[in-house]
Amino acid sequence: MEKNVAYIALFAALIAVLGLVPQITLATGVPITAQSLGVMLCGTVLGARRGFLAVLLFVALVALGLPLLSGGRGGLGVFSSPTVGFVIGFPVAAFVAGLVVEKWRVGLGIASFAGAILGGVLVLYLFGITGMAVVLGKSWPAASLLVGAYIPGDLIKAGMAGFITQGLARLRPHAVLSRG
Amino acid sequence: MPNLSPLSDDPGLILRDASFALSGRVILSGLDLHLTERRIGIIGRNGSGKTTFLRLLAGLIAPSTGSVTVGGVDPAKDRKAMLGLLGILFQNPDHQIIFPTVGEELAFGLRQQGLDKAAALAKTRALLHAHGRAHWEAEPVTALSQGQRHFLCLLSVLAMGPRTILLDEPFAGLDLPTQARLTRSLADLPQRLITITHDPAALQGYDRVIWLEAGRLRADGRVDAVVPAFTAEMARLGEADADTDLAL
Amino acid sequence: MLTLTSPFETPLHRLPAGLKLAALALASIGLMAMQSLWALGVAGVAVVCLYLAFGRGFAGYGLRLLRPLWPFVLIIALWHGWTGEFAAGGIIAGRLLLAVALANLVTMTTRLEDMMTLVERLARPLARFGLSPRVLAVAVALVVRFTPVLMDKAGQLMQAWRARSARRVNWRIVLPISLMALDEADHVAEAIRARGGLSGP
Ligand SMILES: Nc1ncnc2c1ncn2[C@@H]1O[C@H](COP(=O)(O)OP(=O)(O)OP(=O)(O)O)[C@@H](O)[C@H]1O
Ligand SMILES: [Mg+2]
Predict the structure, then answer these.
(1) pLDDT of residue B9
(2) CA triplet C175, A153, C149: central angle to 5 degrees?
(3) Please, what's the b/e burial string for A143-171 (b: 16 or more CB within 10 A of its CB; e: otherwise)?
(4) CA dihedral defined by C119, C122, C128, C131, rounded to 10 degrees?
(5) Residue span of the structural domain in which C139 resides
(6) Residues B78 and B128: beta-carbon distance below 8 Å
(7) Is residue C117 part of a domain?
(8) pLDDT of C68 above 90
(9) Integer Cα distance of A122 and A140 in angstroms
(10) Residues B147-174: pLDDT tens digits?
(11) How far apart are CA B63 and CA B57, in angstroms?
């Protein structure tokens, strides 16, 4: 029990840290935040259920007023702003990513990459675009136009999630609970 | 050393042929010990297995073979029963502190022992007051220095009043006045103390010393028998090329 | 400290958290129902007055919290400037700003402890499904404690990186940061175990 709680809480903190750590720069020179990478890792490392709970804890703390979203955002206002869909989609994204890693028994790196794409990009953007369309009063295609520019960066992050999950499994085999 | 009544109704800590291995690597082996004394010291070189031995006693790890009992209870199984029997001070305070503020950290153990919120808070305040640290209650733990955090960890163990306290290098990182004060408050404790130390002088007044070497018992007995042999051996190794021994 | 609660004490701080949340829910629904710029304008003046009533420092802090919205307001302005539906654009932008400002007002005037007390009370029925409010409280405390710790260590890692590399810190730093989170989780699990663990009565 305490192990589960500790992992869930520390990964919630990890998402926050990855959002606050600035200036991770891609080869192209575009700075990105690694926050959604943190969400992907919750799923691929902790598995569907624990990953979901870790991200849910993170989102709940954002709602309660902790400035844990990238750029130091937080509070209830987040849930009225155009990015609400992404925040609500975070836990589901982690769940789907974790589910892929648990069920698809290929190499951990490949499964994590696939899970991160399916959960951390596809599912997440479904939520995100829907939220944006609703809040901004735009059609779905128009809203997807607004966020489309970020998709390549997130695909790259899915690749990183694959490498990192594999690396963690090599260094701390006992800690990768998604394949425990 | 205060003259204290013996812990007569306490069966002590018993290890029967206990060993501990981690992924095939044997870290502790062949430990047969019956610990009943009030002041017990653990000595040995870096990596000899002292911390692992303490974690085994505390039930944080279970023996790979053999058995460990504390006061007749298996410490790895019955965690709740252990709370009143045994407390442990970790070597690294940052691995021990769970909560963001001093008050919450102290109250946690008390609530684990079944006190309600108000009672835990009252006891926390009283304890801080008794140690002249009343102003610490709302302080974030990150605002304390390393030595102060170490002291907080000791307070949170003392708050729970366990019969036996395991101390993993309690003086590491403390300045001399704090060491002296801590030595005095430890000496006055009625509890059984099992202390890991690298400083032979800290074992003055102890009843028994256990010397671990490569996960086995190298020597076990009275301070005046074990400590001189240990000091001589450490001095001899210091003369020799010590680097070869640091290799894993 | 790690929270958005305003350092300027206001009378709203003393209202129960549950009441403020209920009021926020109602107000948000009300905002969504507003169809005219006039109504939104009146609501806007009311919200601005509400903020100003608690002092200029407080209002300034509230304004800063709205800053992340500017790209979206810009997008709406461009879009509706292009299509010529100015009123519709004004309504969307106004609703957005007001809804976020009201929600921020609750966040700014409610301490984390008060929120937690409310959450623990609301979560009590979940105990039947094995989620005890106490475990929830411990989990929250752990995040509050370890976010700064991990932040700090991540900062040290990046310094160590720069000390030995001419290249900028890149995504590879995420692996050691995640590793720290895992190790820290193992330590904290052991620390909780050392004090009786979380399962059982
Ligand atoms: N989690 C672990 N994984 C692998 N090896 C470990 C682990 N913990 C301890 N060891 C190994 O067990 C041996 C004993 O370690 P332990 O920490 O008990 O030593 P120690 O006597 O407390 O040393 P020190 O004086 O440096 O604190 C060491 O060789 C160490 O490398
Ligand atoms: Mg040690």
Answers:
(1) 67
(2) 35
(3) bbebbeeeeebbebbbebbbbbbbbbbee
(4) -10
(5) 126-201
(6) no
(7) no
(8) no
(9) 15
(10) 889 889 999 999 999 999 999 998 877 7
(11) 9
Lowest pLDDT segment from A24-33, B100-109, B229-238, C165-174: A24-33
Note whether B100 contacts C194, CB cutoff 8 Å: no
Whether the Cβ atoms of residue C132 and residue C201 lie closer than 8 Å to each other: no
Query: Which amino acid type is present at position C109?
Result: T
Q: Rounded to whole angstroms, what are the CA distances from B175 to A171, B158, B171?
A: 36, 21, 8
User: How is residue B240 written in tokens?
Assistant: 């020799």
Which residue, by CA, sits nearest to atom 31 of ligand 1? B47
CA nearest to A37 within chain C: C174
Residues 140-179 in C contacting A (C-alpha not used; CB under 8 Å): 140, 142-144, 146-147, 149-151, 154, 158, 168-171, 173-175, 177-179
CB contact under 8 A, A160 and C174: yes
| Class of CATH domain B13-100+140-247 | alpha beta
Domain positions in chain B are 13-100+140-247
| Structural domains of chain A ordered from first start | 2-179 (1.10.1760.20)
Q: Could you tell me the pTM of the whole model?
A: 0.86
- For atom 3 of ligand 1, which residue has the closest CA? B22
Residue whose C-alpha is closest to residue B4's, from B130, B193, B221, B246: B193
C-alpha distances out from residue C194 to B224, C190, C197, Å: 33, 6, 7
- Ligand 1 binding site (Cβ under 6 Å of any ligand atom): B 22, 27, 44, 46-52, 91
Contacts of C188 in chain B (CB under 8 A): 95, 98
Cβ–Cβ gap A9/C182 under 8 Å: no
